[in-house]
Amino acid sequence: MNIKKQKVLNGILEGKTQRQAGLDAGCPTPNAAHRYVQRLYQDVQFQNAMAEALNKAGCTRDKMAQKINGALEAKDGR
């Protein structure tokens, strides 16, 4: 993965918006940054790097599903 993609990935993992991560990675405008990151999400190499980083952080699919389910139940007042 190239440096620009890695910078975007790091920014997103730090909690930055897609737009800010793209800008920090070197995209010239906010709209260009947003479009660039949207395209990255379609990139298999980027998807794999994101999944690997989340797994290393202990964020598995099961944990994410439990969190989402808990939030939905809390919203519904269950």
Describe, in plain words, how this protein is organized in 3D:
This protein is 74% helix and 0% strand. It has 78 residues and is mainly alpha-helical. The longest helix is centred in the C-terminal third of the chain and has 16 residues, at 61-76. It is globular and about 45 Å long. The termini are far apart. The mean pLDDT is 92.
Key descriptive features of the protein:
78 residues, mainly alpha, 74% helix
Element string (H = helix, E = strand): HHHHH
Question: Which range best describes the helical content: under 10%, 10-25%, 25-40%, 40-55%, 55-70% or over 70%?
Answer: over 70%
How large is the radius of gyration?
15 Å
- End-to-end separation in angstroms reads 44 Å
Number of strand segments:
0
Topology:
Layout (H helix, E strand, L loop, with lengths): L2 H11 L4 H7 L5 H11 L3 H13 L4 H16 L2
Helix pairs in contact: 1-2, 1-4, 2-3
Concise overview:
By secondary structure, this protein is mainly alpha-helical. Helices cover 74% and strands 0% of the residues.
